[in-house]
Amino acid sequence: MRVTSSPAGLRGEIATLPRPLVLVPTMGALHEGHLALIRRARETAGPGGTVAVSIFVNPIQFDRAGDLAAYPKPLEDDLAKCETAGADLVFTPESGSMYFPDRSINVTENLLSRHLCGATRPGHFDGVCTVVLKLFNLFQPEAAVFGEKDVQQLAIIRRMVRDLDVPVEVIGYPTVREADGLAMSSRNVRLAPEHRADAPRIRRALEGARSLLQFGERAAAPFLAAARKHMEESPFLRIDYLELVDAETLQPVGHIKKPAVLATAVFYGEVRLIDHVMLLP
Hints:
281 residues, alpha/beta, Rossmann fold, Pantoate--beta-alanine Ligase, Chain: A,domain 2, six-stranded parallel β-sheet, three-stranded antiparallel β-sheet, globular
């Protein structure tokens, strides 16, 4: 497995590696969910292609300085996991090699990012779009794999690729979960023990609300009320948002007529977690 930390070094490595190249962009602190993405990338690249991973804690997508400062960076452990999972190339840049001090260009999405995380994290998706487009330019991959847990991020990246004619296939991979149902996240390790024990209620609340479908419910309000009631029974959890949106446009809906997403972000102390379920009419 090759490792490089500079854009120039990356270009040199890519020039010698076989195609197709499939990219897995990450911010490190890798867990089983990330490793599943790497394995999915290998399926797409095939035994003769290249699986590339980027590990970069992107500062311009953080809306809270404390969250950026606390984000774990176990690089040596991450590299070992990448090699075990079958990565051929890992890119580990520092912020200074990715952004000029006087940078003045951002990539902005202004429809799909209006709600959910976009409404409570100003500038977040500008940072995501900017770094992902930079990574696509640097790697020139045939495809890239992203987790479906970040449902809004995945939709926005697909829209960016569509609208800007970026020649990259965007592949989504289902959310990987702990045995108790909590969606895997690099932030889970920062949960206090009592918060970690309580956190599976996020999934239970969403699944409980989804069960209303089998009784013929299609109005949005009962789904939101059911999920909110279960989450608010926690003495620890604070809801950041809870919304029911169209699965394609990510705009709020009052009645489920097409596939929809029931999505939430919650805080346990300073740790923010997200999850969602699909609702099919």
